[in-house]
Amino acid sequence: MSIYRNTDKQGVWVACLDNEPIGCIACIKYNSSYGFIGLFIVKKEFRNNGYGVRLWKHALNYLTNDDCIGLEAAPDRLNDYQNWGFKKSSITNRWKSNGFQDLPLSNFYTDQYHSFKVVPGSQLTSEAVLIYDSQREPSPRPHFLNGWLNNPYGNVSVIIDANGMCHGFGRIRPCVLKDNSRGWRIGPLLADTPPLAELLIRKLVGNLDAPILLDCSNLNPYANYLLSSLGFKEISKTYRMYKGLQPPCPMNQVYGLACLELG
Asked: Do 2-66 and 93-238+247-256 show the same overall fold?
């Protein structure tokens, strides 16, 4: 939750009934141009009483001055959000691997990249990664990214050239799966080219022998081919939706989203 607070100190809201938390919503204001809604849920026993609508209206009101509001929608909620003026933009595919055993023994891409190497994130300044990220995201996110990359849970890897310039980065972190078992999640994951993305994925996976999840937009024309070739299987999908002026953002170098709750 500290990452959310550092991005927008007022953007996470909890609904209470007689001092009991019954629901929550995140409405993160990156700047006056872009906001994002996520973490929207009401406890099952309190649903169908209008509490969710009140939370929802609160979020929209909080972001009312933003030029664009984004969210990630489950397939069965598309009509609900369309009724509030949101439009489909793209599909987000969730991919799953069972760890290193699913990876091909040799690199799928045979290109030689002797001038590049994968190093721990600590070997590159945060400023260099932030500059790289800002050129590939619709809105600068320094507070969010700093918290995400410097969080002690998980590992960050970066691709650099001989001059120490950043050409991609990724993070893998522990997560809890739907069945309450332990797994891992990759994201964010950005790279100049598919072969460099493969190098990052192999480094992040390492010797892990556990389920690994990765969320990727279908706006990246290379991602599906790369991930399926590396043994990942598509297991579900959601829809990215926007209300307002959708930010121009080429996604062909984005291979993994940081999290669906923050955009």
From this structure: yes
